[in-house]
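User: Predict structure, ligand zinc ion.
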Amino acid sequence: MNKYQYKDRDYINDILKNNKFTSKFYSTELKLLARHYRELGGSEEEIKNKLHEFCKNGMEKYNPAIHYRIINNAVSHGMNEHNKIVQIDNIVVSLPEINYIDRLDLPHEYKRVIFTLLVLQRLLKKYLEIKDGDIKSKEYYFGGYKNYRDLVSVAKISFDKRKKSKIKNIHDLVRLLHDKEIVEIANNGNIKLLFMYDIPSDDSEGIIVKDYNEIGYYYDLYHGENRVKKCESCGIPIKQSNNKKKYCNPCARNINIQKTVDNRKFKSSLK
Ligand SMILES: [Zn+2]
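Assistant: Predicted complex:
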């Protein structure tokens, strides 16, 4: 999953802080800026000027005669009220939900998949709620190639692919969950998350998921499983590949940059 998925506001803030493009995805970033300026009340003309200004500064070979196209595109995207800024800071999983998953007759790593399904489903629902302005369906369905791919990746599951293994991939696992009546496979390939209907609602905060690429590790951290601990700087769960690992990768990078700066300062103070 892209690190800015469901976090447009964070993406916009990083672009503005950087004051130039943060990636090669010029069109995506311009569209986000256009939405941002529209939400601030900018007119079409003002947004266009803002984007031209931004490109002048943020692009190495800026040429208005070439780039007016992606700018115009971004402006009309931004002026469309349906293109909202989506920012979902976190997803809360309640204590009854955790208890329900914990009590399932499944190995820990499959419970982690159920936990991840719950979080992803809630994310998708919130996303639609922000986009459409209301909740269209009270049903709990999950499906689609991309969502399955995300599920496997962020649930941190690896499958035993050997011949004798009964669960070689996510589809085998879904079939097992279907047999156990935790989910139901629908005709269109989607699955209905039966377990979501059984859990009493409650506003307790059992687990608060902030980083959607590490969803499965939040469940591990809660249970002290799988050598997962908290990053000592930002608190997101990390898998301890060795005993020395204290920080998540972004924090480790920042701390290293800071160390280099400090070293330089120290050395120049000696001169
Ligand atoms: Zn961190």
